[in-house]
Automatic annotation (TrEMBL), chain A:
CDD domains, sorted: TM_PBP1_transp_AraH_like
Taxonomic superkingdom: Bacteria
InterPro entries named among the record's database cross-references: ABC_transp_permease
Topology term for the membrane: Multi-pass membrane protein
Transmembrane segments: 15-34, 41-61, 67-85, 92-113, 119-137, 158-179, 210-232, 244-277
Compartments (UniProt record): Cell membrane
Species of provenance: Mesorhizobium liriopis
Name of the protein: L-arabinose ABC transporter permease AraH
Annotated keywords: Cell membrane, Membrane, Transmembrane, Transmembrane helix
TrEMBL record, chain B:
Similarity-based family: Belongs to the ABC transporter superfamily.
Protein name: L-arabinose ABC transporter ATP-binding protein AraG
Keywords linked to the UniProt accession: ATP-binding, Cell inner membrane, Cell membrane, Membrane, Nucleotide-binding, Repeat, Sugar transport, Translocase, Transport
Biological classification of the source: Bacteria, Pseudomonadati, Pseudomonadota, Alphaproteobacteria, Hyphomicrobiales
Domain (ABC transporter) ranges: 4-239, 249-495
Length: 316, 505
């Protein structure tokens, strides 16, 4: 009995099993959890984390780290709103935001890959620089959206489901494909497994790393646009601490911080576990401060589980 | 009466019976060789002895007492120390600190350095290791570090020492110093289990030896008196291997690889050489002679300062492994673990990592094609793995080496293959298989450059040998011209200047 339990929990799909169990328990015990309204709200609440987690997964899988995501999200949101307001064209604003995000990511990537500066330090620096730019742009104030079409972006629905959730789902599919079925994705995992051996096997390690960070910037900009649209303004202080939530979600989903191991399904589960925990506590009217305790505890438990699983694998 | 006894030891891993009822004993004050092909069960046995894992059945007895230890710590306390290939020293600390790590002589938390250095100095002197206890470990040669690791065992008064391939990264001179240390430990009454693939070392050192094959005891020799080399080899592989080199004559064609005046950070003097189609060109030299460094420049793993490389007459862009591969020049690196295998990835991925680009239009991979390529090479090279999905770190050294070879064989149109230490840490049976792969490639017109520190190997498989000494190419010999004597003479520096001594250290 315990042996079977162990095998199920420590197996490939252990996290998924736990997730399904937790979901079942929560559905049965927490009133209103399964209502359509609540589930849609839940999905909408994880859009930012979910979108950014897609590329953070690549970052971690290649043994890198990106702390600047929260700042890029806020900065891109500001750019989108301010450029839209001043030019009167929303497409132009969105394009500017996407470019700005990609540019920051590109800078991260070039500094890390070509100048060989540690990713933690580099992105710690850009995190502050970009946050500073966002604050400077509006003198620290929130900038309201002039054209209501912009915030209908987040409010619009397709088949009854909010557009941002569709976008998140689409990105999940795209990045699952990129990770598993493209040379770029496989090389990312190989770099995480052993960068030097990958280089000697002909993998263009520098180029891959630059791309990973540039993609991360682009995807953060997407998240930033959607966030600005949802809160109907560009907020220079938006998404503070996002980097930690996103990394938590990835680690929860079995992405190894030592690189070389990642799966999209795991990351999705990780994102959902964090979202459900928060949602359930809201439904149960638990004071928001407790959420920090719960999130931290979940993360610790997940890492413990992962540790046990790795050891079980090594024994084999 | 045996001091260390293995009695009916069995150990099963999921899917593999690693050891089945292995029993033998080792006398006090003797060096006992443990031999066998990769996967024969040596590592498992050592792991059980070190307390890292527990046997499913059977017991280990030391001095008549059954050992029931459950961790390496327990084994340590029982006086059993295993010195692994990967050394466990802290490079930033001094020799003395390393030797007393966790047990510093201290008063009120303050380390008594004088006492520490004195004590360690005395012990080192006693066992004949000529190293300053104040020296930082990072300043020592690999050979010296190996001795320090053994000294660590002596410091805790170990009764049983297991040495796992201790000479695999040592020069012959360093090895000799190590052997003298082992001789001294034998006289001091220790039991030493000596794991090695090198037969000459077994004959030089061991009082007796045990051969494992497929997890079973294949032979146990109390003394080495009547044992011959050939007998040991056949016991290890379970069949007769007449000539493990199996060299066969072959035609060599036009020049494929031409290196002119290549020099770089660790190869100061410009080096030039050529390799022809169908030729196996050996590179011999002492450890530190600059062979691997030169090969890394040729391949583009390191950026050269000057010189040129041409493949079939066409100049090669230097400093990029990617471009070298695309031009048909590939390298199997010396350090498999650091530069060869991609840990955490499957055997299959490790095979196709470079060649998949040929059938991945727009960067989208073709899993079915990858699987068939991987399976084909796993079969063709007889790579022993449960499946292509197995994580490569779980394979033995020989099989990992074959995966790296498969990586390049799956690349269509390679012209030049450089293999650095093709069989380091690999057993006899797999060695013969790897040589055979090299011969077949040569017969297909590939130019092959083999770097090796093992004289018999270089002599056994090369058509021509270049000898490097002190970072330059010192001599050239054709097959028929070379003997152990002339090769060694060319590899040894003329005079022992202080500078060369420092370089080797």
């Amino acid at each position: 009995m315990t042996a079977t339990l162990k095998r199920v929990l420590l197996g490939e799909q252990g996290l998924l099993v736990i997730f399904v169990l937790a979901f079942a328990v929560v559905s049965l015990t927490v009133p209103n959890f399964l209502s359509e309204r609540n589930i849609l709200g839940l999905l909408q609440s994880v859009v930012t984390i979910g979108i950014v987690a897609c590329t953070m997964m690549f970052c971690l899988a290649s043994r890198d780290f990106d702390l600047s995501v929260g700042s890029i999200v806020a900065f891109a949101g500001m750019v989108a709103v301010m450029v839209s307001n001043s030019t009167g064209s929303i497409p132009l604003g969105l394009l500017a935001a996407l470019l700005a995000g990609t540019l920051v990511g590109l800078v991260n990537g070039v500094v890390i890959a070509k100048l060989h500066i540690n990713a933690l330090i580099t992105t710690l620096a850009t995190m502050q620089i970009v946050r500073g730019l966002a604050l400077l742009a509006s003198d620290g104030r929130a900038v309201g959206i002039n054209d209501p079409t912009f915030y209908s972006l987040a409010l619009s629905r397709f088949l009854g489901i909010p557009t941002p959730v569709w976008i998140m789902a689409a990105l999940f599919v795209v990045f699952a494909f990129v990770l598993n079925r493209t040379v770029f994705g496989r090389n990312t995992l190989a770099i995480g497994g052993n960068p030097e051996a990958s280089r000697l096997a002909g993998v263009d390690v520098d180029w891959s790393r630059i791309w990973i960070f540039a993609l991360q910037g682009l995807v953060c900009a997407v998240a930033g646009i959607l966030l600005a649209s949802r809160i109907t303004s560009g907020q220079p202080n938006a998404a503070t601490g996002l980097e930690l939530s996103v990394i938590s979600a990835c680690v929860l989903g079995g992405v190894s911080l030592a690189g070389g191991r990642a799966s999209m399904s795991g990351v999705i589960v990780g994102v959902m576990i964090l979202g459900i925990a928060e949602n359930v506590m809201n439904l149960l009217n638990i004071q928001a401060f407790y959420q920090y305790l719960v999130r931290g505890s979940i993360l610790l438990l997940a890492v413990l589980l992962d540790n046990l699983r790795t050891r079980a694998l090594v024994r084999r | 009466m045996a001091f260390l006894e293995f009695s009916d030891i069995s150990k099963t891993y999921p899917g593999v019976k690693a050891l089945s009822s292995v029993s033998f004993g080792v006398r006090k004050g003797s060096v006992h060789g443990l031999m066998g092909e990769n996967g024969a069960g040596k590592s498992t046995l050592i792991r059980l002895l070190s307390g890292d894992q527990r046997a499913d059945e059977g017991e280990i007895r030391i001095d008549g007492n059954t050992q029931a230890y459950a961790s390496t710590r327990d084994a340590f306390d029982a006086g059993v120390v295993v010195v692994h290939q990967e050394l466990q020293l802290v490079p930033e600390l001094s020799v003395a600190e390393n030797l007393r790590l966790g047990r510093f002589p201290a008063r009120g938390g303050v380390v008594g350095f004088r006492a520490l250095f004195e004590e360690v100095g005395r012990v080192l002197k006693e066992i004949g290791i000529d190293v300053d206890p104040r020296a930082r470990v990072s300043s020592l040669s690999i050979g010296e570090r190996q001795m320090i690791e053994i000294a660590k065992a002596v410091m805790i008064d170990a009764r049983v020492l297991a040495l796992d391939e201790p000479t695999s990264s040592l020069s012959s001179r360093e090895s000799e110093v190590l052997f003298r240390l082992i001789d001294r430990l034998r006289q001091a009454g220790k039991v030493i289990i000596y794991v090695s693939h090198r037969l000459d070392e077994i004959f030089r050192l061991c009082d007796g030896c045990t051969v494992l094959r497929d997890g079973r005891l294949a032979a146990h020799h109390e003394t080495m008196e009547v044992v011959t080399r050939d007998r040991l080899v056949s016991e290890m592989v379970g069949r007769e291997i007449a000539d493990i080199w199996g060299w066969r004559p072959r035609e060599s064609g036009a020049v494929r690889l031409s290196v002119q005046g290549l020099h770089g950070p660790r190869v100061p003097e410009p080096a030039s050489f050529e390799a022809r189609a169908g030729e196996i060109l050996g590179f011999f030299g002492l450890v530190g002679a600059g062979r691997s460094e030169l090969m890394r420049l040729v391949y583009g793993a390191d950026q050269p300062n000057g010189g040129s490389v041409a493949l079939d007459g066409a100049p090669l862009a230097l400093g990029s492994p990617r471009r070298s591969i695309r031009a048909g020049l590939v390298l199997c690196p010396e350090d498999r673990k650091a530069d060869g295998i991609v840990q955490g990835r499957s055997v299959g991925e490790n095979v196709v990592i470079a060649s998949r680009r040929h059938y991945s239009p727009l960067g989208v991979i073709n899993p079915r094609r990858e699987a068939s390529v991987a399976d084909r090479f796993i079969e063709a090279l007889r790579i022993r793995t449960p499946s292509r999905r197995q994580d490569i770190v779980n394979l033995s050294g020989g099989n990992q080496q074959k995966v790296i070879l498969a990586r390049w064989l799956s690349e269509p149109g390679i012209n030049v293959l450089i293999v650095d230490e093709p069989t380091r840490g690999i057993d006899v049976g797999a060695k013969a298989e790897i040589y055979d792969i090299l011969y077949r490639l040569a017969e297909q017109g590939v130019a092959i450059v083999v770097v090796s520190s093992e004289l018999p190997e270089v002599m056994g498989i090369s058509d021509r040998i270049l000898v490097m000494c002190e970072r330059r190419i010192a001599a050239e010999f054709k097959r028929g011209e070379f003997t152990e004597g002339v090769l060694l003479a060319a590899a040894l520096p003329d005079r022992q200047t202080p500078q060369t001594a420092a370089q080797r250290a």
